[in-house]
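Handout, section B. The chain below has 259 residues.
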Amino acid sequence: MDLGISGRKALVCASSKGLGLACAEALAKEGCNVWINGRDSARLTNAAKELKARTGVEVTPVQADLRTEEGRQALIAACPDADILVNNNEGPRPGNWGDWTYADWVGALENNMLPAIMMMTALVPGMQQRKFGRVVNITSAMVKMPYSWMILSATARTGLTAFSKALSMDVAIDNVTVNNLLPERIDTDRQELMAQRMMKESGISRDEARRQITETIAAKRFGQPQEVGDMCAYLCSVQASFVSGQNIQIDGGSYPALI
């Protein structure tokens, strides 16, 4: 299927590895010129070179820390007329809700809510003027089914979800869509962290930790980053122009509720 976005400009945040890189690659395969972002200069440069070699499109690395105003301005300056914005950032650490401090809560908001809101605030008006725009926020399954040990992530990302829903209704008339991807149990560094946490707490091997995790998944396997990337690319397509304000789970069918 031709998604109709060849030649579009895509800015993908936190994309030197993991889900962000998978989204950037899926968009690049559709012919988008992509701007990728990270804090580690060496890893970012290498990711850009490899992505360009695999896809043949222009890939521009932007070293910047999304958590800072300076970093966000660097990203906006690098691609001020983005047609596609993918918001992503590393999630906060799991733990005991009673142990988190005020600084932990502020850090979660500054990591997983406010950067995405600020990026949308800066770039969506231009999308409206040009009558085309796609925003995809990578959030978490915890938005719909929060666990106490992941409540830092759930709280910050639920705030982002509320902002995104309100924005989506304002900008739909301008052919700008805003959707959220809610991944769970995707085989990335984040999943490795969760396995290591289980190993430490339960005194089990890595293989056993991963086996126990996959038993909680309806599909009985981990999701792959490219599966998230492909869904992201579809949401950015011309075919998805009537899909907005949605929270789309990528979890191997594990979510147990109706809505």
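Note. The chain has nine helices and seven strands. Compare this with the example in section A.
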